[in-house]
Amino acid sequence: MKEFLIVDGYNIIGAWPELKQLRDRSLEEARDRLITILAEYQSFSGVKVYLVFDAYQVPGLGKTYVQSRLSVLYTKEKETADELIERLVTQLTGRRRQIYVATSDMTEQHVIFGKGALRLPASELFVKIKQSRTEVRKRIREEAESGRNTFDSKLNEEMREIFEKWRRGK
């Protein structure tokens, strides 16, 4: 099942102590740090991440760009992050897809839950990312200690089976 994570950027910045502290110095630094954290998470989790920032009072058409394969979206004029998140949930909803929305906004959590997405409070996202980082460090350490760094060790079970069938001519 394909997993998607839609993140309410400013909500997460306001909820995580590290980012909140950065925001007090520079909002741009806090945004950049969140982008880096989520790009890393997307890279090692395999979850497709969309990061949404509210530009409600900023004139313009909205903007979407990709940074480190992470989709970063700014709302258009007179559109809230919540509205864009709801639209994304509607667009992404489909068979064999699981959509999570990371926000601590209770109203938004209820709305997206009604549209079929699962809610992920800021504190739970923080824990998930921390656990993923720990797992990655553990795997790197294990590979370094084993002395083996083979192509086979990088493959998941499904890919290993495909290559084995190919090798045997099946």
Summary of the model, kept short:
The protein is α/β, with parallel strands linked by helices. The protein has 7 helices and 6 strands; from the N terminus they run βαααβββαβαβαα.
Keywords:
7 helices; alpha/beta; Rossmann fold; 170 residues; 54% helix; globular
Characterization of the model:
The protein has 170 residues and is α/β, with parallel strands linked by helices. It has one domain: Rossmann fold (3-Layer(aba) Sandwich), CATH 3.40.50. 54% of the residues lie in helices and 19% in strands. It has seven helices and six strands; from the N terminus they run βαααβββαβαβαα. The two termini are 26 Å apart.
Number of domains: 1
Structural classification: alpha/beta
* CATH-assigned fold name: Rossmann fold
Helix and strand sequence: EHHHEEEHEHEHH
Mean pLDDT: 88
Task: Give the CATH level 1 class.
Answer: Alpha Beta
Unreliable stretches: none
- Corresponding CATH architecture: 3-Layer(aba) Sandwich
Strand runs, count: 6
Major sheet: arrangement of strands? 3-4-2-1-5-6
Give the termini separation.
Answer: 26 Å
Measured as a percent range, the helix fraction is 40-55%
